[in-house]
Amino acid sequence: MRRASRLLVTRVIATALTAVAVFAAAGSGVAAAAVDGSPTEPAADASPGADAGGLWFAPELDWGADAPEGYARRLGETPPAYGIRLAYPLDAAAERGWQRAATAAAAQGAALILTFEPTKDLDELTAADARALADTLDRMHAAYGTEQRVRFAPEMNGSWVRWGQQPTAYVRAFETVADAVHAGSSGAETVWVPSYGAGYPFDRADGRLDDLSVRDERTLDTDADGLLTEADDPYGPYFPRADAVDRVGLTLYYFGKGEAAAAAGRDVPLERNDAPESGEVAQRLAERWGYTVAQPQSFTERFARPDRPMAIDTGALFDPARAGDDELSVKRGWWQQVLNELPAHPHIDTVSWLEVERVEAEAGGAEADWRATADPRVAQALRADLVATGRFAWAPVTPPLTADEGLSSHSPLTEPAGSERPTVAAWTMAGAAIALVLALAVSRLLPRWRYRHEAHERDLRLDVVRGVAIAGGVLAVLASVGPLAVASQAVLSVTGAELFVAISGIVMGLGYRRRLDALGVGDSLARGWRRAGRLYAVTLSVIVAVFAVGFLPFLDTTTVTTLTDPSTGRVYDLYPNAERLLDYPPPWYAVRDLLLLRMSPWPIVILGLFIALALLAPLFLALLRRRLWWVVVAVSIAAYAVSIALPDAILLPTAFDAVYPLLAWQLPFVLGLVVGYHRAVISRLLRRPRGMTVATVIVLAWAAAAITGVTAPVLGMITPSAPGGLDLMRLGDSAVLLAVALAVLTAVWVPVDRVWRAVWVPLGQASLAVFCAQLLLLILIASVPALDVDDPLVATLVATGGLLALWLLAIALRRRAASRVTPR
What we know:
The chain contains 32 helices and twelve strands. Helices cover 53% and strands 8% of the residues. An eight-stranded parallel beta sheet has the order 1-8-7-6-5-4-3-2. A two-stranded antiparallel sheet has the order 9-10. It is of the alpha/beta class. The model is unreliable at 1-52 and 260-265 (pLDDT under 50).
């Protein structure tokens, strides 16, 4: 029998450890690379701005089907910048796309190259449109710290764009935008980007040249022969005032036609895929390729200079439906020519590559593929050639803004120790000491008021404490100012999430002790893991629901899906790559972020910790069943010691581990589990005079040490860098407060039961539902524009009303049918 028991315990431990290992491995780069087909993981730079003096390689993505994380995984390096095209004047869709791009780029510390394409005639664009653009630039820079470049209406010398070949209106519009951008605080730079001039004024003019004003005719006829021909300057008439242009660029796309006569804008049909001719890029940069009339100077000589760097916007068209050279030959043959020319053109500091699929007139109206990373072979070759130059910088170029960083810096249920911490702790511990003394007196004078364990199936005192704790946590979230906010923040400066975690351990220890006695180890552990599965399913459902609700135009979910640093104004996106879940099929990295709970509203991120603890709890319970409580405690303390020695270690690739590191936060749970499992023994000891005296002395001694300021310096030396804010002082304070609360409730249970049971017990028993439902309240409050939650009176009324609504929900969930929806 003993051998069978040992074998069962061994299997249980092995199974749980395997589950945890699989959970951790799911976030590894090996799995992602296997699914994505990416050749290697993105390289991690030592610090922001590494290789800051290098060139930039900046892909222009199709943001409706791609994202920076996916691109970086395919390439195997993280670019320092990404390009995006947006409508101008800005509309709601453009602002959403801009913000989505900004959050994704900021997570990598990458810059944004913003191409604004007019949706109105140039004469209809106003200074107000430019100011709106500049205001958004300022706001995005303040929120994400991202470097931004503004490309207004590129290829303006072409005939294929709405804003093309209108020099007077274009120059006026560009200068208006530039003046607004330069007047702002974003530090954004303007980029002037014409198309390569061979073939100008191009065949497909759509009749625009027939309607030129007299002024534009004179401006475009640079050789004054009365005609607009290839002898005229393709660039100069469109160049704005010099101080309006911070950077210049030139589009050098390869259309796969393989002959110099087939310049952009000419109706030469693409019949096959041909690799580029040798030296074509060099000839283009020398302004000699495709011209029938020689140009006196190259674009670089005319417009680029040390204080006005130059970008090359390029790409190679490939039509997979046509015969000829393969994709690698076409695209590599082109980018290698571009890279080979960089040493001879020191003013070029950026190479942008068109990373999209789109319908092209040059491909006969068929969909052409400009991408260089869709095929792993092509992506691997591109990375190898870029790295081989030794000239390119990689992200981050600014400090990355990741969800982990935002959550770890602004944990909603833990407050970092500040200068007021010792004072608050001293007053709190003084109150706890007084409350304990009074409770002991009441217990002796009025024994009929005492709590009777045999009268209740579950420990209702724990439900009351948890109900008060959940109410305090909700008030801390709902009220940012006012007396309720002050009270909740004062409590959080002493204890917070520690109390929730410890109580959960106690309750689980209590419940599973009875189950182990009744059902045995196997069935009890299986039920424990099923409970963890239910909790995971509920959490996942809430995360998806918040994401779905975000598409409703009248609800603002950003209040829970982003975090704003109040000191810097930086905004952290807590739903990275969420919109990629709508792709078909969704990319693995987006699915991974969802399944590993790396997408999560900030108020419920701690649920990931409870899931992990619920998965580990059966291991500890199996050991407790074998009377190995000392092993459980020793392992827990050792794990906490490791977390102190390695405070930056992340055990699991989830959002919660950055805020509530599992190595550290398992300690209050495991200690609570041990206490709950041995509740009967501990209760018997405390009922004895000696046991009660020892416990009272410990509590009073801790309170005295806090009041006299002894605990802070002493325990600060032991936990100099507390992981997740979980230092020994907060743990001690939480333990004292919990012990005093239980002692007080034990002594005065009868009046508490009569007056407060209906309030706190429902909240405590439905704490998970209440915890999740607060998200809806936050979203509703943020979606009412006239609600001034910065007003103390309004904030107090809103928080009180919200807590009342959650209490009514808890009452409703006490029904048996409703209680099956969520684990209690």
